Amino acid sequence: MARAIWKGSIAFGLVNVPVKVYTATEDHDIRFHQVHAKDGGRIKYDRVCTVCGKSVQYADIDKAYESPEGDKVILTDEDFGKLPAAEKHEIPVLQFVPSDQIDPILFEKSYYLEPDSNTPKAYVLLATTLERIDRTALVHFTLRQKTRLSALRVRDGVLVLQTLLWPDEVRAVDFESLDGVAEPKPQEIKMAETLVETMSDDFDPDQYTDEYQIELKKVLDDAIASGTGKIVSQPEAVPAGMDAEVVDLVAALQRSLEASGRRAAEGSASAAAKPKAKAAPAKKATKAAAKKTATKPAKKTAKKTAARKGA
Predict the structure, then answer these.
(1) Closest Cα partner for 23 from 160, 217, 206, 188?
(2) Within a 10 A sphere around the Cβ of 151, how many other Cβ atoms?
(3) How far is Cα of residue 6 from the mean position of the Cα atoms in its chain?
(4) Beta-carbon neighbour count of residue 220 at 10 Å?
(5) What is the end-to-end Cα distance of the chain in Å, rounded?
(6) Per-residue three-class SS string for 108-163
(7) Which contiguous run of DSSP H or E holds residue 22?
(8) What's the rounded Cα separation, in Å, for the pair 238 and 246?
(9) How far apart are CA 77 and CA 144, in angstroms?
(10) CA-CA-CA-CA torsion sign (177, 182, 183, 187)
């Protein structure tokens, strides 16, 4: 596991459960940084004050809020420290609710909780209890000066804390395109249910892969292997003086010829597969024609010979 990002305890009635908090998920997306297309130089961003025009260090930056009316308020770290927040090192349990009553749209980010004591009996007791009663604990969790409503549940014997969105952070939805739409017919529903049934199976996340990231990694590996840091294109050789349109036309013609050749080969194979009985009349006709052709020259030769003798 990575380094713990938070240490404290779960307040479960009068019982305290010391825990360490770890980020449960990670992003495998390939990261890019911006460069100058001309020379590949990194693009850097400077925090510049729009009033004095000077660069400002991060430690000298405060946070400002501007109201819709244009009023600006600047708050410092001391101002934020005065705001009411849950105990920074405590995760108080507010109540236990049926797990199916929490809409998945509210889930935000997940964290693993590890017992942080030599005798994790209280941790195991809480995890076992949650698993047996099939309920989820609603808690408050404060991280980086921000308190969130969170769900505490069990996954494979480990306590998992999932921060929740506040109800007003979920947008209301009302699509006019759904107004007045007729209800599906019973036969349509039955067919849809049949289709769903044929496509149904147990969920196994391991059978799904991020194809985009895999292909992107191949592209990057090819660029690295080329030694140039860029994708090496390998276009077909083009005769001098031929523009792109002509090249495309030639390629199209080549593909057409190849397709035509395949059709001709398929036709020959089809003809060879025909029964011999159908081909017999053609052979007889050919022999008769040959006999007739051979008879005519013989008659002409006999007439010429008789004429010569009479002379």
Answers:
(1) 160
(2) 21
(3) 32
(4) 13
(5) 123
(6) EEEEEEEECCCCCHHHHHHHHHHHHHCEEEEEEEEECCEEEEEEEEEECCEEEEEE
(7) strand 15-23
(8) 10
(9) 12
(10) negative
List the structure tokens of 153.
């549940």
Q: How many CB atoms lie within 10 A of CB 259?
A: 10
Closest C-alpha to 131, from 158, 150, 171: 158
Q: Look up residue 173 and give its DSSP letter.
A: -
Residue where the block lists tokens 């067919």: 191
Cα 160 → chain centroid: 26
Is the full-model pTM beyond 0.70? no
Q: What is the pLDDT of residue 55?
A: 94
The pLDDT averaged over each successive group of 10 residues in the chain (311 residues) is: 89 90 90 87 90 91 91 87 72 93 95 93 93 91 88 95 95 92 88 89 88 86 78 52 47 56 56 50 45 46 46 43
From the list 119, 137, 129, the residue with the least C-alpha distance to 157 is 129
Q: Which two tokens stand for residue 94?
A: 């507010």
3-state secondary structure 27-72: CCCCCCCCECCCCCCECCCCCECCCCCCECCHHHCCEEEECCCCCE
Which residues, at least 6 apart from 94, have a Cβ–Cβ distance to it below 8 Å? 137, 138, 139, 140
Neighbour count for residue 120 (Cβ, 10 Å) = 16
Report the distance separating Cα 86 and Cα 88, nearest Å: 6
3-state secondary structure of 302: helix
Question: What 3-state class would DSSP assign to 221?
Answer: helix
Is residue 138 within 8 Å of 94, Cβ to Cβ?
yes
Distances (CA, A) of 85 to 51, 88, 142, 148, 299: 34, 8, 7, 10, 124
Six-digit token string for 156: 């494979």
